[in-house]
């Protein structure tokens, strides 16, 4: 076996130098001549009709160049998917506190802010509903009166229901009758913010030729382009989106965010316009995750086999379906073989900030419920929780909820590795406990393209349309390098925009290395085949006898007979086929699940309720780690986000008005270095058949397990099960004192007025 | 109205007019276009704007520009090329972040690096806890901190070796 050149090596990132020297350019670092600064006026009402909106004083303020309101935009609604329920700026009605109502562009930020304060708005309040468990009722106050007129609305569920996801198999009713034991529990996840360090930012400029250039902080430049074209009612070809360095997104920056405001102001003023969100706006303007209530029912036989599962999930979408529908319901079985199931997930409107995406939206909430419930059931049955999971774990050939056949995977190896690292069961001592959780994700798919051109010095330029997140450019460059037998420093990775790069799906859902990386591998193979053909002509031997390695192509049995890639690149300029460019396009990739297993050890202070994670271990089947340092970095980062979700992070929402009460990093508590245990990470390598060099997705699963693993560890420590996130000292102390949690039993049938409407 | 301000930034003395309400961060970014220093919150909570002012790490968003008059300010742009640099001119802390994967999205990185440089100036042989507390005011959402801490410990070792 020849030694790898780039694959599997912990090489520094291709963008390391510009980032470490402060030279990397993020959207907020763009300064253009004559650039104006934009500020937004947002709604102070939870739900109200706009009776009067007067911008004349703002317009009259010296230094103000343009003011826009919702009426400046074409009368269109857009959405995150099929359901088009949202206007980019309020017109006659506002639906949550923080909804954009007007925007100003002025010579400087302070003038823009002053102008915003001069805008007069008169609201006529309308009825408000904030609690999703109230909003789902048939007799609830409607958030959107005209819901049924929305394009893409296909669910007549009554109340404020806007989406339903369902899945059924077998005979659930009979299976529960036949089960030896039945267990039923309700869990609740909390609203959380994505916590990206770089606030949303954008600069927009109208070019002399009438095209719009947008410097964006985005994971999905083509999504921004498409949605911007929709809300401005102009062709996509009139918009160029330049994806700047991305300072964290985690799902929050997948779609159109604030770009339409500076864009419209730039069109109106004729000047470049910049908008940078404040940190407060990062909490109040941009869709977070909202609360999900999950009820699980499980039928089990005496030998520990699960025979039936029923799951109801009520998913708060806020004022608009900014992301969704809630994919978590597909994970309501967990990585377990359950022959009979009935799964339902309802999305419900409320008067609060619209829901967005965040690192495997919905699945993390569902994993908290399922993996806590598994532990609870195991304890009630008197079976070891690890053993209970082992009895029920899926195997190759099982059929997933969506009907796909489970391919070769590393679930068993992952579980075993975790068990071995944790060591033999030990007495943890008073107030100490250990808990585990399993997780599952599918490697993300979707349209992917790549183009690789061979430069005349023998280096290559790798062009993709995707935005780098968490080192994906480096991993893709390693894939290209390995395929062509060159070193990583021979790969040029240009910054790109939607004009120059081929279309690709957004950087999200753990799809880049698996799907986009596959396109890179295929494009590199295409380039290699072309180089081989040319070398074959030159050397007079068939391509099959040639090897492409170390910057040259040589005859396998006669290495001195060789030609360098640089020579081939020069030759190609006058060859019949012309310059060498490898390309590849694909629209989807085969189902390739990713499994992980995580464990937390905790110390619970019974006096204060404080929970400290003293050890955290995780194992994940990554297929093949293209860049182990990058893979481990993502797994560590994901685990810490999950620990934050478990222990401290909570977007506090006022139950009366839906207002976000803690829109700052001082009050929204993300993990700090001082809070974190060392994260022990084990990579399991069960290669996929189709991913590049066998790679699987990486980044989503590590965030799934921490809430359940920590909940299970708390139970192990003090015998108290906490079913609501996060496990703050107050909540843990209340549970220790035996106080009833807020998330009691949810009577789904009563909420929905009888059986669920689709039956 | 703008008033004259004198700062010595990365060794170069600069005289320029700045609005009285400007923070040191805004002066660096908007007036000097030193955009390596990042604005993550503008409220002193995230640490992305950390610079060294007369050798001490400060969150530059909480320092009024004019209160920094006549001080020495060091930013991420001024680190490379000084002293113990490697062939590419990086400071050992920068080099360690590159080698050990201490950066991902890079937005918190300049602040983290400046906090680390500030720490190692005063404490060349820090414990793990010393490092954790020195970066206790720097939020990072990508890395989970493990590789950041590893990078800073490695940089400390490297700097001790070079000085030894």
Structural notes for this entry:
The complex is a heterodimer of chains A (759) and B (164). Among the domains of chain A are: 35-126 and 200-276, Aldehyde Oxidoreductase, domain 3; 367-442 and 593-730, Aldehyde oxidase/xanthine dehydrogenase, molybdopterin binding domain (Aldehyde Oxidoreductase, domain 4, 2-Layer Sandwich), CATH 3.30.365.10; 445-586, Aldehyde oxidase/xanthine dehydrogenase, molybdopterin binding domain (Aldehyde Oxidoreductase, domain 4), CATH 3.30.365.10. The termini of chain A are far apart. In chain A, the strands form six sheets. In chain A, strands 3-5-1-12-9-10-11 form a seven-stranded mixed β-sheet, sandwiched between helices. Chain A has a five-stranded mixed β-sheet with strand order 7-15-14-13-8, with helices on both faces. A four-stranded mixed β-sheet of chain A has the order 16-24-25-26, sandwiched between helices. By secondary structure, chain A is of the alpha+beta class. Chain A contains 18 helices and 26 strands. Chain B has 164 residues and is an alpha+beta fold. Helix content of chain B is 34%, strand content 15%. The longest helix of chain B has 18 residues, at 146-163. The radius of gyration of chain B is 16 Å and the shape is globular.
